[in-house]
Write a structure and sequence with these properties.
Blueprint (H helix, E strand, L loop, with lengths): L1 H19 L6 H18 L15 H8 L4 H16 L7 E7 L5 H12 L9 E5 H4 L6 H18 L4 E5 L13 H4 L14 E6 L3 H13 L9 H14 L8 H4 L5 E5 L4 H14 L6 H8 L4 E2 L5 E2 L6 H8 L1
Parallel strand pairs: 1-4, 1-5, 2-3, 3-4
Antiparallel strand pairs: 6-7
Amino acid sequence: MKKAIVIFMILCFFTTYTVASPLLAGGTLVVVAGLVGKLFFCHFKECCNDKWISQELPNLKAELSNKVFGQHIAIQVVHKAIEGHIKNKSPSKALVLSLHGSTGCGKNHVSNIIADSLYKLGRKSKYRHLIIATHDFPHKERLPEYKDKLINFISEKVKACPKTLFIFDEVDKVPEGLMDTLRPFLEHHEKVDGVDYRKSIFILLSNTGAEMINGFVINHWRKGNKREDLTFKDLEPVINNGAFNIKGGLWHSNLIKNFLIDFFVPFLPLERSHVKECIRADLLAKNVTVTETMINEVANLLQYSSPDKIFSSTGCKQVSTKVYYVI
């Protein structure tokens, strides 16, 4: 409140001084009043500046580590990629992360944590945009219309704020060819039609390649190897190949051909122990006294796939509803 009073006093001072001074008149009054007025406005309402958009992301690593379970590769890659891009005052291109894995493994959860760390208003920020394939692009026959719509949308939003976050959900269901529309915005260009896209972030969420990831992890488990020994280097080629060759939004995409996707991030299938961590977190969020008996009761309501019912079929996606059922 004290800051607001100070800003208001500065506005009054400049307005009075400008009117009284013969050296400051006309257009200068408008400019000064406009600048101070914007300062006053941005104190209360979200603006594209350092007050509302983080420059350091000090909590991102801790948030990912504490709230995302069973995804040691994704946590490491996402944290380093996002933090490196934000701290770079002059990135060479927009950052593009393609998150792949089965439903319920944490892809949407991670994208929300990124938004919450990047913006003061978190996922409610007007600079964070969620595009859902089945909602925004449901009809394949309208592909030309969708391309124009997407180009205009991205251009308008980045023009308003260079540090804009775009999250594309269900990329595997996007009409083939639509994602190639993004290519000019993701290239190493300083500007496209006068707009600089290099500080923006694009996150693609997809189930494409999930079966390949799951198969790789299961084979690793069958050999008696530790899950934690799996590395990004092991799995990125698996996803890259799957995303390019499996029918879906990135099938034979120019984004892959031209190496415009910076990281293909694997989300591993969750084991029962990871699902139990999700249950524990959900119970705590609902202010319920947590007991091992209750956690196991919820875990037993969920489905698990072979081998030996180790891996969850739905990840943590149904946890919240099952918790409500038990409590």
